[in-house]
Structure formats: structure tokens, C-alpha cells
Amino acid sequence: MMQFWKMNGAGNDFILIQDMDHRLPDEALPELARTVCERRLSVGADGMMVVRPAKAPGADFKMLFFNADGSAGEMCGNGARCVCRFGCENGLAPREAQRVETGAGLVTGWYVDGKNWRVRLNDPLDVVLRQVLELKGQSIPCSYAVVGVPHAVVEQPGLRELKGAALDALRETGRALRHHPSFPRGANVNFYELLGQGRVYIRTFERGVEDFTYACGTGTGAVVLTLALRGLLPDSADAEMRGGLLHVDVEREGEAIKNLWLTGPTNVAAKGTLTDDRIVL
User: Who's near 99: CB < 8 A, 6+ residues apart?
Assistant: First the structure.
């Protein structure tokens, strides 16, 4: 019998499985993720997290992250906030300064209030504030940053009101950019619209899900980071997305980025037993 939690952070949803005794074979995890994340045919989610004992010094536990297509992900910002709450409520870590081992390094999380949790995202790498991508005869300006995972950041005026055929067209643009030759590892593609007063609206086409998700934590960090560095947002900004509101703080030390913080809600939607007949372990 395999117990699970179904959680979401601003609508970015995950299946969490505790495997502290390492009963689940490593080679079975990608197929398990594909099976249980498939909407309508199983529980359904954007990704799956398996919680195991940490190997890194100082870490409270380890998070293995898998996208809905079974591919392994280095890190997930909303997932990290959810797994911090999971770790706390299952007695694996304290509420404050718990350290989670991820494929992108250690992530530290804190309880804020209510259902809100805050995590320090991975140090930004390979930040490019301005580049132009050629796509089907179009020149698309974008920024780029690796915040645990690689992210492209592209402005899209009127994004919040986009729907129907226009949104479908943007989805196809996101799909093409996600595989653009400029991104050898692939990239999440974050479209944004500046709303004014330190606020931005974001829709993210996520690799591994291969569609828009309700929210993307590391993507939100990448958007606010690059726009703050360009002087288009303050260092403390709110990000709206389909699933809710996230807050990002960019902390600088001279010209360097010292910390990148992500704060937002978590929700435990369900707890139960996985009984999917297709699961073979």
C-alpha cells in the first residue's frame, strides 16, 4: 500500500510519496510518475516528489522530483515550498530553516504564516538579460536565467486577457521556444506582462509538463530577477498567475545577487492510498 499526499502551491500541483526506507526501486520512479500524474486516468498532477533520507551534509531530507512525463527535474520552487510543509507535518524537519537536498543543491525553507511558506531559491546562474531568438522568421527578445532549472523570459503584452485562439498560438510559441537550439537543456518559457506598481502577470510553458501550468515557482523567480536587474521591477515584487499570487524578493550584495526568495501558499488537497491498477513495482 503506497500512501500519498496531493498538494499544490498556487495551483502548481504535485503528488508526494514518502520513501524513507527506500522501498521504491529507482528505475521504477519515472514510470510511476508518468502513471500517477496522468490526469483523468489517475490522481493527476504536474509532477511527483519522492521524499528520502538526505545524503548531503546538513540536509534534513532529500527530494527527488519528476515531471509529469517521467523526466527528472533538478528543482521546483512551488514543489520545494510544498515539500517543506510536508517535511514539517511528517516530523522530518523543523518549521524554520529546514534544508532540503535537491538535484540543484540545498534549498532552505521557512514557515511564514497560515499556509504560506518561503524558500531560498538556488543561486541564479548563466543570467543573460538581453538576447534575441530567431523563430520561424520572427525575432523574439528574451532574457534567460538558470534558477535551479533553465528559464527563458519573454514579454507578452495583454497576456492576462489572452484566451482562445490567441492563447493557443502562444502555447505553440512556448512549445517551440522550449526546444530552441539556444537552450541545449531545454527551458521553461515564462511569458510576462508588467502590471505596474511592482506587479507582473506570468504564464509558464513548462518542460516535462509540455503545457502551461497554473504557476511556476522557479520561473517566477527568474522573471522577477531578470526584470529587477533590468530596472523594470523593484527588488520586491508580486507575481500573479492563473493559480494565485507569489512574492519574490531579490537580495543584493553590491552587484551580486545574495539571495532569491520565493513566498507563497501551500495547500494539502488530499491524502490517500495509491490503488492504480497500472502501477507495477
Answer: 54, 58, 59, 60, 93, 106, 107, 108
Residues serving a catalytic function are 76, 216
Cβ-based burial of 52 (10 A; exposed 0-12, middle 13-18, buried ≥19):
middle
Length in residues, the chain? 281
The alpha-carbon radius of gyration of the chain (Å, integer) is 18
Alpha-carbon distance of 184 to 163, in angstroms, equals 30
Cell of 269: 488537497
Verdict on whether the full-model pTM lies above 0.90: yes
With 0-12 / 13-18 / 19 or more C-beta atoms within 10 angstroms meaning exposed / middle / buried, residue 201 is buried
Helix ranges, 146-250 (H): 164-178, 217-229
pLDDT digits (tens, 9 = 90+) for 204-246: 999 999 999 999 999 999 999 999 999 999 999 999 999 999 9
